[in-house]
Amino acid sequence: MDDPDADSEAPPRRLDAWIDRTASRIEDFINVVELAAAAIFALLFAIGVVDLALQIVETAADGNITDPLAVIDIIDTGLLLLIIVEVYQTVIAYTRRSETRRIVRLIIYTGIIAMVRKVIIFRTGEYATTGDALLAAAAYTLALVGLGVILLVEQRVVGD
């Protein structure tokens, strides 16, 4: 008893298998690219750590280690390195197919570090008018408070 529909199902099954193989190959390619991106961020971090060490040594040798602007520059570089680490961890989380909650939390942490960095290096003299500086300060504050609220909600609603 031959099933006349059996032959009509064969091509879709072959097509499904081809789609699965192709999707798997593309996913493997994406994983390789993600790992390459992670390696680039790791390299940038290593270069940044060396640069930070040199910056500290040069600032101390010049006698400017007590200058608040020099210290702010050092802190700025350090926070930039933390941002690179957070982006690296986010890429690794994507590669490992971590749960979405972990990835979102890493992105929030990255945003908070970036906004804190902006606040620390904020200088009103860099803006054409006081109004421009005030608008930028308000935007930074809104972004930082928003990220803080999102993190708080994420921790309280979803829990640790």
From TrEMBL:
One of its GO terms (cellular component) is plasma membrane. It comes from the Archaea. InterPro entries: P_starv_induced_PsiE-like. The keyword Transcription does not apply. The chain crosses the membrane at residues 35-57, 69-91, 103-121, 133-153. It is found in: Cell membrane. Signal peptide: none annotated. The keyword Secreted does not apply. Keywords: Cell membrane, Membrane, Transmembrane, Transmembrane helix. Pfam families: PsiE. It is a multi-pass membrane protein. This is Uncharacterized membrane protein, DUF373 family. It comes from Halobellus limi.
